[in-house]
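WARN retry 2 of 3 for item q-0093 after timeout on previous attempt; input resubmitted unchanged.
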Amino acid sequence: MSQTYFQKGFGLKSTVGPVLAAAYDSRIVERLKALGYSARAGELTLTLAREFGFCYGVDRAVEYAYETRQQFPDRRIFLSGEIIHNPDVNARIQAMDIRILPDAKDALARYAGVAAGDVVILPAFGVTVAEMKHLRETGCVLVDTTCGSVLNVWKNVHKYARDGFTAVIHGKHYHEETKATASQALTHEGGQYLCVRDKDEAELVCGFIRGTVGAQAIRERFAHAASPGFDPERDLSKLGLANQTTMLMSESLEIQEMLRAAVRDRHGAEALGERFRAFDTICSATQDRQDAVLKMLDERVLDLMVVIGGFNSSNTQALARICAARLPTYHIDGPDCIEEDALRHRPLGTHGDVSAPAWLPPGPVRIGLTAGASTPNNVVGEVVRRILLQRGLVPDDLQIA
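OK item q-0093 returned
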């Protein structure tokens, strides 16, 4: 650890710990957990998934941001994009006079105002190789909170590129993490990447591999989601699958098998070892939250689900997709979405909020709750409080279901 690069915090956990607890802990959430994660109040029954909210990587990133302000009280501090995808957390960080830098086409534009001696916090998603190079040359102090699960994906992408495999990344090409991961492939001579968002895009790639889709169709569909100069004929002959760590695990596994089958159909089963590789790179916290909500849906009879987390949070969107396949689901980004006579939510696959005036029907209602890995307990607790308020209830009314 040098004086300009910090990756393990500043040893100030005891100092910032009480501040973090006051900001992000929730007595309401603790009450729900103490009641066995399911509680009744009046005619409402609330059930909370047993794995939800802040994961270790997010918790660590947020703590390091608070430590950074303590360590450098008089310096300008910048954050290269949202530290995590949660509006409450990002607002609190900005309130500490930490400026979140907007995205830009290149590092020079994004960090134009950063000078030597300034402090730049790198978010849990990581940053691209070009951004890191630019920041090091600037001479600023770097506080790197990149999640260990993301770093693990980067290691696999490096192995793919080193061995002549194109990294096929299941992820959103515009997402900070996916951009950072893709950039790792380009650090090796001849390294290539292709970002595949969903099964429809994967099917197009499979069609090319099997010879039923032309190269031009691939170039057009993935014009903004492939490495510069991407040549389908050359670069789709050897594939290594990786993931944005917050995607839906079941879909990643399906895409893996789709690509494996296409390579086998084109080149034969005996060639799979030399033409296709795959590693499970969905982070354990993402998987735990998906497994927990599936278990809750299997074991509980619920009338509706409320999924809490940033609208731009991929892992929260994945939770909403799981729930929406089974029952009415409302994805909200925080308690302000619960209004006096309606609920403002983001329907699956859309980009705008809609109002649901009749979201909470009269009489007995069984509500399931979960939250993405970037959602703090205080937000979950306040959502619970506002749901109860819809029926004139308070958290102290909660009792064992």
